[in-house]
Design goal:
alpha+beta, Peptide Deformylase, five-stranded antiparallel beta sheet, three-stranded antiparallel beta sheet, 8 strands, globular, binds nickel (II) ion
Length: 176
């Protein structure tokens, strides 16, 4: 399939609320997901939401093996999630650094719920349910925010915790 251009912050399409997918198993949905997987892999992303490539539908993908952009986090299984919903298992929150392919070169510290249960469907309409915590829970919350037009900088509590990746984490820049 194809590596698609990722929209950058400032593009009003990133602020839209995306529509639920109504039909599963279609060629259109298959092609969308194939393009999202190619694009995320090419850019070393931990996740990607359909509106980031200009498609306002409620589709996210995420997953992490060993990723040079996130060297110190536990692996996350590669997941395709359509029409997701999130339930917070506890009110406990954790502060942590995030990046986003739509905000290249930057990192910011965001509070996220520590433990979540999320549900949705795969591309064929099979229901999925998972529980996650820590960075995995963070990635799911970040990606699902994109479906509601929310970018992580909007959630930074103190803007002093926002800056350039190569300044905040020079060791990552050296790693390439
Ligand atoms: Ni993002």
């Amino acid at each position: 399939m194809a590596i698609r251009q990722v929209l950058k912050m400032g593009d009003p399409r990133l602020l839209q609320v995306s529509r639920p997918v109504k039909k599963f198993g279609t060629e259109e949905l298959e092609n969308l997901i194939a393009d999202m997987l190619d694009t995320m892999a090419a850019l070393d992303g931990a996740g990607l939401a359909a509106p980031q490539i200009g498609v306002p539908q409620r589709v996210v993908i995420f997953g992490l093996q060993s990723n040079p952009r996130y060297p110190e986090v536990e692996p996350i299984p590669m997941t395709v999630l359509v029409n997701p919903s999130i339930e917070f298992i506890s009110s406990e929150v954790e502060s942590g650094w995030e990046g986003c392919l739509s905000v290249p070169g930057m990192r910011g510290k965001v509070d996220r719920y520590l433990r979540i249960r999320y549900t949705g469907f795969d591309q064929y309409g099979t229901a999925l349910e998972w529980e996650a915590e820590g960075f995995h829970a963070r990635v799911v919350q970040h990606e699902c925010d994109h479906l509601d037009g929310i970018l992580y900088p909007m959630r930074i509590g103190d803007l002093r915790d926002f800056g350039y990746e190569d300044v905040l984490f020079p060791e990552l820049a050296q790693a390439g």
